[in-house]
Amino acid sequence: MESLSKLSGLTLLLLFLLSCSTFTSIEAYDALDPNGNVTIKWDVISWTPDGYVAVVTMFNFQQYRHIQAPGWTLGWTWAKKEVIWTMMGGQTTEQGDCSRYKGNTPHCCKKDPTVVDLLPGTPYNQQIANCCKGGVISSWAQDPANAASSFQVSVGAAGTSNKTVRLPKNFTLKAPGPGYTCGPAKIVKPTKYVSADKRRVTQALMTWNVTCTYSQFLAQKTPSCCVSLSSFYNDTIVNCPTCTCGCKNNATDPGSCIDPNTPHLQSVVSGAPGNQPLVQCTSHMCPIRVHWHVKLNYKEYWRVKITITNFNYRMNYSQWNLVVQHPNFDNLTKLFSFNYKSLTPYAGLNDTAMLWGVKFYNDFLSEAGPFGNVQSELLFQKDKSTFTFEKGWAFPRRIYFNGDNCVMPPPDAYPWLPNSSPQLNVAKLIHFTPMLASILLLFLHI
C-alpha cells in the first residue's frame, strides 16, 4: 500500500510538471490559424563592390491578426562587420558609430540595427512597392492586397557572392510590442519575378527566409478582451468575469482607470501620464468587451446581436476584426453591416467565422465614449438535428478580437432556459402556439 501511495503521488507530480511545461506551447499555438506566421524574405537583387542590394519583404500570413499602429519594428544582428549604406522604403532608428568611414557616411553602422517603415506621404524617390504605410500590415484574410511591407537595403562590408555572404541572425519582430518569436534565417530557392507583360521571368541572386510566430502569452501578461452574454429567454446578463484584465486599484495605483462620470473627462484623459492603455473603470477592466445576445427565435431561424465596446480612452482600432467559433456558422443566412469570411482551419469543419467592419462605415472602432462601439446582427438557419437553446448551445465557443483570445464567462454562468421548464424546447414552442390557439377556440365554441 505504501509503494502504491508513492506511485500515485509520483504520477500526480509528473502530470503537474507536464501541464506546466506545456502551458506556454498551448498558448503559442492557435488552433483556429494553425499555419499563421509572418515570413520575412530577403531577396538579393544585385551585387556591389563591397556587398549587395536586397529587398526585404514581410508577408503577414496570419488569417486575422494584423499589425496595427504604430507599426512593426524589425531587428537583427550582422554576422560580420556589415554596414547599411543606403535604404529606401524604411530607415534605421539609430545611425551608430560611423567614425571609421571618411567621405561617404553609411546610413547605419550598428551591429544590431533596428528598422522601421516610413510614413505615408514619403517623397516618391524614397519609396518602393509595399512601403511607407507607417508599419501597418493587414491580415491575410481581411485584406490580402495590403498584407505585406517592404524596404530596400544596400549592405556594405559584406560578401559579394552567394558563397561569401553570411546571413544575419537573432531576428526580432515587434508589432508594435512583444509577442513574436523569430527562427533562424534559412536559404531557400531564389524568388522569381514575372514581368508586367508576363513574357519574361527573372529571379533574385539569392534568397533567405525568416519565420516569426506569435504568442499571446508572450505579448501580454493579462488578457485584452472579454465576452459577456445575454438572451431573450432569460433576464440574466452574464458580465465578463471580475478582474478579467486586471483589477482597478486607484488607491495604490492612481490613474489606473477613469470613471466615465468624471467632470471634464477629456482633459483628465489627455493629462494622464504614460502611454499605457487608459481604460474605463469597470468590474472586468478590459479594453475591449464583446457582447453576444441571443435576440430572437423564429420557426426556421434564430437571430443574434453582437456588440463590440471599446473601454480604452487611448486607443482607436482601425480595421478591427472579430473571429467567432460556433457550430451554427455552417448555416449563417444573413449578416447585417459586417463583412464575413468563413475560416476553415481543418477540412470539413465550417464552424469559424471572421467578421469585420464595412469600409468607411464601421471599420473604425473609436476610443471609449458614446461612439466607442460597433454592432451587427446575424441570422442563422436552424438545423433540426442539432439546434437547441439548452445548456448554453446558442453561445459561442471562442471569440478573438484582433487576433487575441477573449476570456469567456464560466459555462455554469451562462443564461439557461427557465428552471420551471428545464426540458422546454423554445423552438418547438413557436410550432405549437397556433395549434394551442385552435384548440382553445374549438373549446370555447363547444
TrEMBL record:
Residues 1-28 form the signal peptide. InterPro entries: COB_C, COBRA_pln. Residues 224-415 form the COBRA C-terminal domain. GO terms for biological process: cellulose microfibril organization; plant-type cell wall cellulose biosynthetic process. It is a lipid-anchor; GPI-anchor. The keyword Lipoprotein applies. It is found in: Cell membrane. It holds the Pfam family COBRA. Coiled coil: none annotated. Keywords: Glycoprotein, GPI-anchor, Lipoprotein, Membrane, Signal. The keyword Cell membrane does not apply. Its main location: membrane. Belongs to the COBRA family. This is COBRA-like protein. It comes from Punica granatum.
